[in-house]
Amino acid sequence: MLRSLPKRLAFTPKPFRAEATTQRRSFNATTIRFSGTVPPITPIEKLILEHSFNHLILSELRGSKQAVGPMSYATYMQFCLSHPTEGYYMKSLNKIFGAQGDFITSPDISQIFGEMIAIWLLSQWESAGCPSRLRLVELGPGRGTLITDVLRVTITKKSSQSVTIQVDLVETSLSLREIQRERLSGVPASIHWYDSIDHITPSNGSFTMLVAHEFFDALPIHVFRKTDEGWKEVMVSSRVTELDESNPEQYPRLQHVLSPEKTAISTIFGNSSSRFQSLPVGSDLEVSPTSFRLARKVGEVLAKNTQTGSSLGGCGLIIDYGRDHAFGHSRRGFKNHQIMDIFHRPGECDLTANVDFAYLKESMQDLVPVYGPITQKLFLTQMGLMVRLERLLQSHQGDQTTSDRIREGARRLINPQMGEEYSVMGISTTGGPVHPFHLLSDASK
Ligand code: SAH
């Protein structure tokens, strides 16, 4: 018999609060209960359990009572989302986006979303003096709806000027790349795909316009708890000692455990912002070092090189659910438009966490001017959402069904849920004040 995990590793995550919602992944969930039949093990789950079991067996053989082998939540998240063959975003079998999929995002709710983003990006390009070479970069384009809308506006607005457009897409999923390729076929721009923003160079002779929508929430987070001894890491471990796929008592099969010791990772990243250092003992903290690194890279890509003059600089928008502060309990799963437990069907559910915009800002503000975040509602309304809505409705006069759909989509983008829970952060090397970020920032709460 294998021994269960020692008591001191036990850690119970706080339950989710408030209402479960449909059709969006922003945070407001009820406690997820498991009932009915126990689902079979997923390939990712098997991998993790085998890893834990192997370590348990090894420690048994050595006569040690302590289980080793829990993995960080960041590794767990990375595995579940980006495992090369079994990861959630990597499998073409997973129906991710849209009404028939697991979640629907703003670009697919209304074309006005992408149009307002395009208008903001182009306003910055104009402030930079309309350079004749434009580079559009998107991180995590999903189905390619946003980039298609941004490109349509860009091409329409610039048809009178000779502007060369290059599109660089950062996408790890081969199956999503295929969808993006189809979506963009025939577009008059040269399009390139990259595995990582690391392969994108600072703009060379072109003005860069970058967008990242619901990208940073998908990046791995570490979870730490502040103890009297300092930050310790909340890990993921097996909660079963023997696999019994039909036993509801053994589901979910994974659990959180608190690392008995401080580690280099928990100490370095738990103290990686002065905001974290001042948190009281007992606090839980979700930190994404990957987000910090990639956001810094965004700053490098957009920064003006004043010494050589080779880089014209650029602008960018980062849009996601989150606020200008850190979170402790925002991690959640998502499936079929429902918020799920993070240990439910690993690899078959989306995993996500709120974005700490202040951390993104801290990563790049010595490189580029950063604005906001402000709420999505403030951003979209100030960029002219209502005016655009009226024009669209006029062009569909007489078609009640389409008009209703357009009106409903636009309203959803700014309703108290999506409009308030999503935040927008701007980056621009063109010099302020930058509309609409100069208005009162109301996403810092
Ligand atoms: N922006 C889209 C899709 C959001 S889902 C929309 O709003 O609809 C997250 C996207 O990021 C997916 O395309 C996913 O494959 C991609 N992604 C996730 N992690 C990534 C990483 N580390 N590098 C590049 N792309 C990633």
Helical amount: 25-40%
Distinct ligands, ions and cofactors found in the model = S-adenosyl-L-homocysteine
Backbone structural class: alpha/beta
User: What average pLDDT do the residues reach?
Assistant: 86
Enzyme class: transferase
Family: Belongs to the NDUFAF7 family.
Subcellular location: Mitochondrion
Keywords: Methyltransferase, Mitochondrion, Transferase
Brief summary of the model shown:
The protein has 445 residues and is α/β, with parallel strands linked by helices.
Account of the 3D structure:
By secondary structure, the chain is of the alpha/beta class. 32% of the residues lie in helices and 20% in strands. The protein has 14 helices and 16 strands. It has helices at residues 43-61, 73-82, 106-109, 111-127, 145-157, 174-183, 264-270, 274-277, 289-302, 357-364, 376-382, 385-395, 400-414, 418-421, and strands spanning 71-72, 133-139, 164-170, 190-194, 207-213, 222-227, 230-238, 254-258, 284-287, 314-323, 332-335, 338-340, 350-352, 355-356, 370-375, 422-428. Strands 2, 3, 4, 5, 10, 14, 15 and 16 form an eight-stranded mixed β-sheet that branches. Strands 1, 6, 7, 8 and 9 form a five-stranded antiparallel β-sheet that branches. Strand 11 (332-335) and strand 12 form a beta hairpin. Helix 12 (385-395) runs antiparallel to helix 13. The chain is globular and about 70 Å long. Residues 1-24 and 26-31 have low confidence and may be disordered. Arginine methyltransferase involved in the assembly or stability of mitochondrial NADH:ubiquinone oxidoreductase complex (complex I). InterPro entries: NDUFAF7 (IPR003788), NDUFAF7_sf (IPR038375), SAM-dependent_MTases_sf (IPR029063). Belongs to the NDUFAF7 family. GO terms for molecular function: protein-arginine omega-N symmetric methyltransferase activity.
